[in-house]
Structure formats: structure tokens, C-alpha cells
Amino acid sequence: MLFTDKCQNFATDRILEAAFYIDTERGNYMKTIVVCDDVEIERLLLKEILCQYFEEINEEVSIVEYDSGETLVADVEEGYIAMDLLFLDINLGDMNSTALVPALQKLQPEMKICFVTAYSEYAVQAFNLEVDDYVMKPFEPERIERVIRKCIERNPADENETEMQPKRIAVVCADRTVYINAEEVVYIETYNRGCRVYTAKQVLEAHQTIGQYEKKLPAFFRIHKSYLVNVDRIQEMFLWSKNSVALRMEGYPENVLSVSREKVKELRERLER
Predict the structure, then answer these.
(1) Cis preceding-peptide flag for 218 (omega within 30 of 0)
(2) 219 vs 159: CA distance, rounded Å
(3) Are the CB atoms for 191 and 204 separated by under 8 Å?
(4) Which of 6, 36, 148, 178 has a CA-to-CA distance to 76 between 20 and 30 Å?
(5) Verdict on whether the full-model pTM lies above 0.70
């Protein structure tokens, strides 16, 4: 595994020479993850989590550190570095990252960006800039791992999800089992030990868990631990409260469904397919 510190006292060409050598010697494409934060201890903590994760799954990556947004942009403009995933601190010492993101997205549109900050009020800015994810300090390993899986380990099998979607599903209630067309389901919500199934015609209380329905309905989208939605039935996505995003669904305009912060970008992509 290659770990490359990119600070102001390191030469960029030397870093790239080392990364290219290891990549070509092994004959495999090596993912590049960049951590850009002007606080050294924060970079080291995040790099340690990344190191442990990739060691556990036995995958080699290049992890590059930057302590300056200006230096990062300059290297990208010169073609010195191509990123798969960028962990970007919002409050850099030399510039605000909300101004940095559009330039990076234009230069490397395929790159995934995850904002890193200690302040929750930046969630709305992350949403407006359409970055891929948003994590809070102090770092939680499980949260960082979810970002990695979402941004650079996504399975392209999603394209076949509608072919696996069943036409009808069984909703097991207390005194009966109701069979409904899957396309009639608007959304499913956790309720007590089971869930509520909201359809175009009625609301059913089911014994099955939301996780069971998630497996049966691969074309649906889990926007939150409490909600599984039919993407085709989404009426609107909007900023709700101070730092969150929510949905309204067809037929249930009075119900507001909160979207988990880490799901916003992926949901937007699904809606724009």
C-alpha cells in the first residue's frame, strides 16, 4: 500500500513518479484518494482510518495529503494528480472549499467529493454544490467506510435492478395477507417491530421489516433507516429545516420524509437517470 504525504515541502513530480511506478509494476489500476485539510492531525487521523480499511480488504491505494486548497487546484490544473475520491475540509486556511469545488468538478468531473467539517450548518452548502457526501469531525471509522463503499466501490449491477423487481409483493398483516402490485407502493416506513406500507390506495401495517422489503424491492431506494421509497413516486425534494433534505411523495403531500445526509447525492443521481 502506498501512502504519500503531499505537503508544501514535498516535490509533486517525485510523488507521482513513485505512484506511477508501483501502479505499472503491478499492472493494476490503483485508486487515488486525496485528503485536503490544513490541520495536520486531522489529516493523520483520517489517513489512519483509510489505511486500516484498505488493509482489511487487502486492496492497494494511493493516499495523498494536501494542506492547501490552492496547491491542490494547481496540481490538478497541471495534470499532476487524478483523484478518485477527495476528502475536502470546508474551512481551509488559504481558501473556502465551497469556492474550490466548482473548479475541481470542472477539471475532474468523474471525481467524487466528500466534505469534511466540524460544523453541521454546512450541510445545505454541500447539497447545493452537489458533492457526493458529507462527514462530521471527529471521524467515525464506520462513517468513513460508508463513504468509500458509496463513492468508489459502487456495483454497476444497479442497471439490472428493474429486471429483478417482482410484479407483486405480499404484505403480511395481523389478520390477513394482502397482495399488491409493487408499482403501487409509494413508500414504506418502519413502525413498531414491523412497518407501514403506503400504497396509492391504502396504508397497511405489516409484520415484515423494512429490511426484508428492501431485499424484495431492489428498484426502491433506502433514503433513511426509517424509509424505503419508490423513486418513481417522489413528488419533490426540498431543503427542510436548517441542515437537512426531505421528500414529499405522491398521494401523501402532508408527510415529510427526511433523507439521510449520506444518501442525498446518490438519490439525486437516481432521479436524474
Answers:
(1) no
(2) 10
(3) no
(4) 148
(5) no
